[in-house]
Amino acid sequence: MNAELVAYRRHFHAHPELSLEEHETAAFVERELRQCDFDEIRTRVGKTGILATLRGGRSGPTTLLRADMDALPVSELGTAEYRSQRAGVMHACGHDGHMAILLASARALAARRQDVRGTLVFCFQPGEEGYGGNRLMIADGALENPHVDRVFALHLYTGLDVGKIGVRDGPFFAASDQIYVTLVGRGGHGAMPQLSVDPIVGAAHFITMLQTLVSREAAPKEPVVVTIGKVVAGTTHNVIPDRAELTGTVRTLDETVRRSMPERLERMLQGLCSAMRMEYRLQYEWGYPAVVNDQRANDLVRDVARACVGTESVVDPHEVVMWAEDMAYMQAERPGAYFLVGARGAGIGTEPQHSARYDIDERALDVGFRMMTGLGVS
Known about the structure:
2 domains, 8-stranded mixed sheet, Aminopeptidase, Alpha-Beta Plaits, 4-stranded antiparallel sheet
């Protein structure tokens, strides 16, 4: 196993920083990059992001390779020696590994510049976890000077065994939007419901009705997820409150289905509130669009993956991954590919992303390193 990769990953894991606060992380990355001969290193791109440009010895396109840097507001429950040293903050989604892979790849490719085809831009991106750092970097010129022709990123994934590479054409990760619903009734005594309009009962009906958007209004081949993750209502056991507030997420792969969701929610709320004598307010916030892979970029990923892990280990993941990923913004601007690198081993790397016990089989780091360096010379 590559000792540099493991050391980088464990350093990042032990020193996590939240979205758009990755100052120490960025400073560490910059110090390591400046030990090598890059043509340009740009800092504070999209607030805390870094871009390192390397012009290769062979003609070819300009390729951007990206890793995300931010951690999550999660209190780590793991006991590894490299566990988080910051209370309430944890790399629970693999970004520590992504940075380690890209940083080691950047240093390795800088040392073999003559093999690099075209120009490489190594992109260390802040604020992926809901803050749209990818879009912030685009606004700061991440895709220009030099003009980027294609983009690639990977995600360590404990749903695949170490040594597997997951690739899928077309929509891969879901669009993610947020919904905020307020149901307004009339409060009163819990023993006299006939004198009140109970928004908690209305909320219960609405949550149940939402699932028909998936089971009865979306085609089985069109994945849709609607989840209410937060319900706030009431103050005590015997008082019917005036209102109930619900917060949730809508995940879709198809853009037409996505654009239809606000109208469908309005229709459902109008009917429910008319029947139950309530009023409502709906706030629908558009989030990350779906990550859509370009077939030609995916074909290159498959070619590199076959050389790295063998044809039989390059798979189309069976399950649909309904995560959201702000790499979608760059892939909307440039052809690109987002792919999975298996991180599940024997007794480690078995927890899902965002778990407080999340960890990876670190053998996955070498697979990711070989993928990124392979793409860098292809």
